[in-house]
Design brief:
By secondary structure, the protein is of the alpha/beta class. It has one domain: TIM Barrel (Alpha-Beta Barrel), CATH 3.20.20. The chain is built from twelve helices and twelve strands. Helix 1 crosses helix 2, helix 5 packs parallel to helix 6 and helix 11 packs across helix 12. The longest helix has 20 residues. The protein starts with a strand and ends with a helix. About 2% of the residues have low confidence.
Amino acid sequence: MRYGYWMPVFGGWLRNVDDENMTPTWEYNKKLAIRSEKIGFDLSLVAELNLNDIKGEESPSLDAWSTAAALMAVTSKLELMVAVRPTFHSPALLAKQAANIDHIGGGGRLSLNVVSSWWKDEATKYGVHFEQHDDRYARTAEWLSVVDGVWKQDHFNFDGKFYKVADNVLQPKPATKPRPVIYAGGESEAAKNLIAKTCDAYVMHGDPPERIAEKIADMRRRREGFGLGPMIYGVAGYSIVRNTETEAKAELSRITDVKQSAAGYHNYQQWLAGTQLEQRVSLEDYSVSNRGLRSGLIGTPQQVLDRVKAFEAAGVNLLLLQCSPQLEEMERFAEQVIQPSR
């Protein structure tokens, strides 16, 4: 199992807790990245939103790609999975930018998390065209074709509905061969077919291991149908590790005391309207993003270790964690879960 975490570019993950003692600043994220690779974490996902959907639109959030470039320069082992939304980035220009960051890290440490946009208000406020769900995936399919093409060959041409590239030359090519790993997630048919056909890894919202096993089996069938080999499978999860189950449950109660007047609630409603999730999302899920609580990484160290083993048995290669306050909780998780598991 590889262990990753979400970089707190939004200043926290709890929509109903105002101050989590994790500021959305370069200094805090730099400190976290440097420390995390020393204590055993393998990867960090740097999310991309120009507005803060967790703490509210008026709150600060860090830019994903400039932050990732800076983090790559101050770390030595950590993989940085940087989110990218095709509607916000020209594919050839993003491919150039990503290749450069890959070289800054020495190769093998940059990966992409391709996300089809869901937040209409953000797109409007930043002057970006917002498309309906399946149209976004059609655009993403072309976007991925261009990125893959310019990474792998020079004098590349592409003539599609959304993008046109003529005689492109991108040098230097990425240091990672044959290309940086491309992760993506989604639960609609359009999303799953696109990911199975064009990506290297499938990342899922939190769910129990038995449900994740079903999803992995489904994606494996799709991959085989396209004549492609195995994928990487990642799952989001919110971790609470305590010495006793009673202490863990007390912390769970604290963070799920949902306040519908919280600044991020309106954005959460837009997210629900703009996605095609397989399950009804509860107000408890509102308090922690990405259905992280459903993964069940909550309890004593042994209980959490047992849950990790269950995910491994289901076929999961990567856990993507959120926790709060992040630095302190990651220290605890590393000492009590990561180290005993290796």
